[in-house]
Amino acid sequence: MIARVAVLLARPASTGVAASALPVTAFAIVTALLLIVVGGAQTFWTYDDDAGVLYQALAVIALALLVVPLVSLGGAAARLSARRRDDRLATLRLLGATPATVSALAVLESVVLALVGAVIGVAVYLAAVPLVGMIHFRDRPLEPYGVMLPWWVLGVVPFAIGALAAVSAVLGLRQVVISPLGVRTRQEAPRLHWVRLVVGVGVVALAFGLMSVLQVAPSVLFILGMLAVAFGGALAVLNLVGPWVIRLVASGQAKRAKTPERLIAARTVLESPKAAWRQVGGVAMASFMAVFAGTGVAVLEAMGSSGDAESALLLTDIRTGILITVVGSFLMVACSVGVNQAAGILDRGELYRSLGMLGMATSTMDAARRRAVMSPLRITAIGSAVTAAVVMLPLTGVTLIIAPVSLLVIAAVLAVGVGVVWLGLAATRPVLTRAATTTAG
Amino acid sequence: MSSYVIEAAGLSKSFGSTHALAGVDLAVRTGESLAIMGASGSGKTTLLHCLAGITRPDAGTVGFRSGTGRVEVTGLSERERSRLRREAFGFVFQQGLLIPELTAVENVALALMLNGMPRARAEEYGRGWLAALGLAGMEDRRIGQLSGGQAQRVAIARAQVTGAAVVFADEPTGALDSATSAEVMRALLDSTTGQGRTLVVVTHDAEVAARCSRIVDMRDGRIVGERVAA
Predict the structure, then answer these.
(1) Which residues 77-116 in chain B show a CB within 8 A of chain A?
(2) Cα separations (Å) of A188 from A178, A246, A351, A368, B155?
(3) Do A152 and A214 fall into the same domain?
(4) Would you call B113 and A357 a contact, using CB atoms and an 8 Å cutoff?
(5) pTM to 2 decimals?
């Protein structure tokens, strides 16, 4: 029965193809990026020398960093496909369908969209294999055969992505309760405690302390442990303090706002600073890592230019890995923002329509939602970069003097990343225009 | 000088093969409260949208007369019609449709800010309207913290704060119980016709319509009757 109703519901809705195309595109990008990264990294497991272990460890770290935005994107795409059919699912509730049936339908649809996206993603990966094969590690191209994954992996991945979509949809639906009348109530905006900041400053100070005494560490293992604590601790702090800082800044912006778009944007962020953080949190990790690792590599490279060729090669490779991870993170955050925005617009379609009737220009609505994403994004990207710079303070200072170009490259990569997210946002403008201008019959 | 604030002639509008309006003539007098009644699909909301310049009819004209002269609404561009709606008209919808993240006073002030008024002054006007509608002390509450009737009164304040000559209300009490509904209608009438302004209400509720000074009945996209309320 569920499958038959799902087929009926699959007919185009008034919200247009963009609402279906976005989650499919998002899942396609997730799949393609995942396969490209895993495909590229598999070469590292063929290295059987001492340095091989280091490459494998770095690949695992890069994959771990990509998992956060990947899961967040999967969840956003699943929520979008559930929202896309909100009205129809609510109608089904009125006709007597049980909440379980309605949930099953939403999950099924997410899974189907995910499967379609994943299959497209596999095709994109296959098309990208020759290009990825040209990337150099250890002074050798990876080669297409090195990047190519076994056929059975390509067969399994779409189903794994489908399963991820199912889990995300179930979790997402817990928050989007589809009542028979589709009525949602909102309570007071959550408040975040300043204690987060105190804990955060403490951990950053500890990380800074660890980095300052790095040179007196008794062994390499000890250094690695201290680096891991500083890196992991600072990242945890970002997650802890990020929403609090976003709320603080938005609160000031709401008080000072002089135009409708600034006021709406600030209030939107204040409605849920945690949601604003979740949307752009992936950037925090990428931005932090770019400065943390990028600075380290730049200093080592500048200081060790007379060192052995193998070390120089390792540093070049780490820089390549950082760039790939940062680009991947930003791409996923851009998709996540696009998908979240489309879901938000569909969720508030009637409100946007009514604002259009009141005479509010679509450009004003667009400016408000753009600002509501870009402002936390800027805070996140800059805040994370500054945190990393503080933790690495001695090295950041040294880099500024001996390798300023490296810092410029890092800044440029972050700026391009922010630009990519802006493009993801701009891609949803047609959905807003359509929602705002559709009038009742 | 004509006493009509809105004059519509020969309005037709189709959506695909559905004829929502089939040649409607209607004149709305300055300062009156007009109820447009009819079953679902009779074309009453489409008529309201055409009168307010939200939808452009396939045929026919809509004229709006203000202190500065007569404007052919149907001849205006999308941008000009948006401006007309912001400056001369007010709207109240069934669900209020207020911005949930904003406070009550910010929702009201927004209508003035869209016309370029500085925020502090806009909020001052907004507070005044909220107090006049019995919402003093609730200005800083968010919409989710208000009852349905209170939220609808915020929507009325938003529709009125710009000094709109005409307020269009689409099923303004459709989501309310009968006691709250009567309260909201009283607030709506007091703040419009009570101040010499004009109110056009789309409703299928006979009790709501009975409180207006004139009622027109619609069926199949045409006006099929007109009554003067008791």
Answers:
(1) 79, 82-87, 89, 91, 93, 95, 97, 99-102, 106, 110-111, 113-114
(2) 21, 17, 20, 21, 20
(3) no
(4) no
(5) 0.76
